[in-house]
Amino acid sequence: xxxxxxxxxxxxxxxxxxxxxxxxxxxxxxxxxxxxxxxxxxxxxxxxxxxxxxxxxxxxxxxxxxxxxxxxxxxxxxxxxxxxxxxxxxxxxxxxxxxxxxxxxxxxxxxxxxxxxxxxxxxxxxxxxxxxxxxxxxxxxxxxxx
Length: 146
What we know:
The chain has one domain (about 25-140). The chain contains five helices and three strands; from the N terminus they run H-H-H-E-E-H-H-E. The chain has helices at about 5-25, 30-60, 65-70, 100-115, 130-135; strands spanning about 70-85, 85-90, 140. The chain has a three-stranded antiparallel beta sheet with strand order 2-1-3. Helix 2 (about 30-60) runs antiparallel to helix 4 (about 100-115). Keywords: Membrane, Transmembrane, Transmembrane helix.
């Protein structure tokens, strides 16, 4: 059983790692090796986030915990028609497949990482859909009864 001192050491090592590779400013003294390590950490983080989002959207009822708490979920969407203000009829509105969930998560996370906050595109498309939702054939909707 680890002692309190070894737990404190592990916590300190993680904090030191985060401070060194994420929080500290990159300057002219930063080595190429440090930059490569930072890129690897960022890439691993993005891959883990993609796996997490894919599993949540595909296998956990179409919602990450945040979407669930807000009463939202992601469903498939081939077509959407405005029925009345703030009401859209979505066809087929079924659960998202593994492939569509993966496409959505990859597009979302790597676009955010390398381009710009792509979620801003919801301001320009019908029914507040983002580019990654359109590409994946999905839409975020309010849960029924939620």
